[in-house]
Amino acid sequence: MTQLNAYLKFNGNCREAMAFYKNCFGGELTLQTVGNSPMAEFMPHEAPDTILHSSLISNSITLFASELTEPAGITQGNAVYLCIDSENKEEVKTFFEKLSAEARFISPLQDTPWGAFGVITDRFGFGWYLNYEVKTKA
């Protein structure tokens, strides 16, 4: 099955951010540093503790992340949001509450004609759409 996953880039705080997301979503977190990579000899030696690759897998949520960036660095933008869709309203409420720590609220989680929806920018600068949709029987 083909799948699209989010890959986030951080500027030195990948470990902190991924631990935060693990607290929000649960799951298994794996962190690989430059120094412990099979590719270590080809990587920048001045930062062996830099996160080369990390993954957080929790049920159907997969987040990948790294601190290795292009020479120009990272530009946070508002063109891409991560979207959590769930058929479980309590799950969406829990995710919204946990992601809200030090977040900027764009739209509070509120009831909608289809279920519930809210939008935030988390403390790391990433935008999130959280959506609960009531499934109707056909």
Offer a few descriptive terms:
138 residues, alpha/beta, four-stranded mixed beta sheet, 2 helices, 17% helix
Q: What's the quick description here?
A:
With 138 residues, this protein is of the alpha/beta class. The protein contains two helices and eight strands. The radius of gyration is 17 Å and the shape is elongated.
Low-confidence stretches: none
Which structural class matches the secondary elements? alpha/beta
Write out the strand line-up for the largest beta sheet, numbering strands in chain order: 1-4-3-2
Mean pLDDT: 91
Strand content: 35-45%
Distance between the termini: 26 Å
Radius of gyration, in Å, reads: 17 Å
Describe this structure in words.
It contains two helices and eight strands. Helices cover 17% and strands 38% of the residues. A four-stranded mixed β-sheet has the order 1-4-3-2, with helices on one face. The protein is α/β, with parallel strands linked by helices and 138 residues long.
What's the layout of helices and strands?
Layout: E1 6-9, H1 14-25, E2 28-33, E3 51-58, E4 61-66, E5 81-86, H2 89-99, E6 104-111, E7 115-121, E8 127-133
Parallel strand pairs: 1-4, 5-8
Antiparallel strand pairs: 2-3, 3-4, 6-7, 7-8
